[in-house]
Design a protein that fits this description.
four-stranded antiparallel beta sheet, 16-stranded antiparallel beta barrel, mainly beta, 3 helices, 50% strand
Length: 511
């Protein structure tokens, strides 16, 4: 075992040590050198406007970052989607109009990108005409996973010994290919995709086709229908795959969250610094669950409210970490509440592509027959979950955390009258720093889950090396130590009950 640990550490050190050598090849005309040659430019306020279906570019000094001061248009201004900035300008699109604080301003120019063309973090614009627009994106990654240092078995809270499958393999782990745009009017928008988890070959919902349709009235309200992620926690607000790790949540986030499901939702903003979403859905997870398995109650609701007090944004897609290098401190505070009446037959498989089984803190699925005693089977449970998150970003550094509470009550089924209500809680904390701006990011995370059936925890650390000094391609190495994981499935780095170290390396492409 010692040799396995040594080899894993050596692999991680190789990734860490090789990154700076290539990443530090930066041009001589850095902002520090430029400021020595010329007096600093004063901050300026610029207004940049776009019409539906149009993209406008407003030249400006963005070297110190950009802050959205005030939204003014009919459509919402969403960083990375309908507004953003590059080295020389601020851009807005699809009806977003706003005031921005930048460096020295230049006369704005209105441009419309020609198809086909590549728009960073939006994808390839394949078609753009008077009757519609088509964008294409692709997310995929290859993963080497080593779980061989985990304990071979664990004992659950009921005294049962269970075997832990310990993997070591290489997978083209996942690909995600969405098409998005509008049709006939920019108010009518679509987001349709194909999604495959290749580590789950042969399992239900290993390949998924889904998506949603949205009608955008204005920046204050949009109405959507179809499949999307329930806004139960911060990581399901829509920033996937812009996380610190590659497609892996910490155990508390994975344990408490909802998943992708079918429903209808309202989304928008009360003002430029307060965003909301409300969703009414079939269940906590629709992946691998057919319509015939659902009850007819539609008793799932999820709500989120996010306040961005200082800058009105929190980086591209509200992502984790400060790759955007905020020169003014960016802050956020979010609250979430979800409720669902969950039935045994409406649950995804235990190895589903986006598994969100309701589990006890020892990892046991609550709908398992005889789990709470001989002859006792839960068929339905009332699920409630709340979370509060906060974060701060400044000059490449970030500190972000979230606390969770979950209540399980009103157990119905066979001989369930003696089951008491179950209250669980937990937290996650993540911090990161750009060791080399735009090239090398280091991060650390910790997470705990507390409950009647056991207290579990983990720590992890890793690096992201952006090979081309921009988002799109990154090499990620991550080391984790977990004490009795309460979650696990094929597409997740841990199996249920895992105790010990896990190491993985990921090469990610995202355009």
């Amino acid at each position: 075992m010692r040799s396995l640990i040594t080899s894993n550490v050596a692999l991680l050190l190789l990734v860490l040590l090789s990154a700076p050598a290539a990443a530090q090849d930066t041009p001589d005309d850095s902002p520090i050198r430029q400021s020595a040659a010329a007096p600093p430019a004063k901050a300026a306020t610029i207004t940049c406007s776009s019409k539906p279906g149009e993209r406008s570019s407003c030249a400006a000094d963005t070297s110190k970052g950009v802050v959205l001061l005030r939204s003014m248009g009919a459509a919402p201004c969403l960083l990375g989607k309908t507004w953003g900035y590059d080295q020389t300008s601020v851009w807005v699109s699809d009806g977003c109009s706003a005031e921005f604080i930048t460096g020295a301003a230049v006369e704005p120019q209105t441009t419309k990108p020609k198809a086909p063309s590549y728009i960073p973090n939006a994808g390839f614009l394949l078609f753009d005409g008077d009757k519609g627009q088509i964008y294409f994106r692709l997310f995929s990654y290859g993963r080497y996973l080593n779980q061989r240092n985990l304990n071979e078995s664990y004992v659950d809270a009921f005294g049962h010994t269970k075997t832990v499958q310990r993997r070591q393999d290489i997978q083209l782990q996942k690909f995600f290919a969405p098409f998005s745009g509008w049709f006939l009017t920019p108010k009518m928008r679509y987001y349709l995709y194909v999604w495959s988890s290749n580590a789950s070959q042969g399992d239900p919902a290993q390949v998924v086709g889904g998506g949603n349709l949205t009608w955008t009235f204005n920046r204050f309200v949009s109405v959507g229908v179809g499949i999307t992620s329930l806004p139960t926690v911060r990581s399901t607000e829509g920033q996937f795959p812009y996380w610190l790790g590659v497609d892996d949540r910490l155990i508390a986030d994975e344990f408490f969250r909802g998943s992708y499901t079918s429903g209808v939702w309202l989304k928008g903003e009360f003002n430029s610094k307060v965003k909301y979403q409300a969703m009414f859905a079939n269940n906590l997870s629709t992946l691998g669950v057919s319509a015939a398995q659902l009850d007819n109650k539609m008793d799932t609701q999820s709500f989120s409210l996010v306040w961005l007090p200082t800058t009105g944004e929190f980086g591209l897609w509200n992502t984790f970490g400060d790759y955007d290098d905020h020169q003014k401190m960016a802050t956020r505070l979010g609250v979430h509440y979800s409720h669902s009446l969950e039935e045994k037959q409406s649950q995804p498989g235990t190895e589903g592509i986006e598994n969100s089984q309701i589990r006890l803190t020892d990892g046991s699925v609550i709908f398992t027959p005889d789990l709470f005693g001989p002859g006792i089977t839960v068929n339905e449970v009332d699920y409630q979950m709340s979370s509060i998150d906060a974060g701060v970003k400044y000059k490449g550094l970030s500190l972000e955390g979230e606390y969770y509470w979950r209540w399980l009550s009103n157990f119905t089924g066979i001989n369930t009258s003696g089951i008491a209500n179950i209250n669980d809680h937990g937290y996650q904390l993540q911090t990161s720093g750009m060791a080399v701006p735009k090239a090398l990011q280091l991060y650390f995370g910790a997470s705990q889950v507390f409950g009647r059936y056991g207290d579990q925890w983990e720590v992890r650390g890793g690096e992201n090396w952006y090979l081309m000094k921009e988002r799109g391609i990154r090499l990620n190495g991550e080391w984790m130590y977990v004490n009795r994981s309460p979650v696990g499935y094929t597409a997740y780095p841990y199996p249920v009950g895992a105790k010990g170290t896990v190491f993985h390396i990921n090469l990610e492409m995202n355009f």
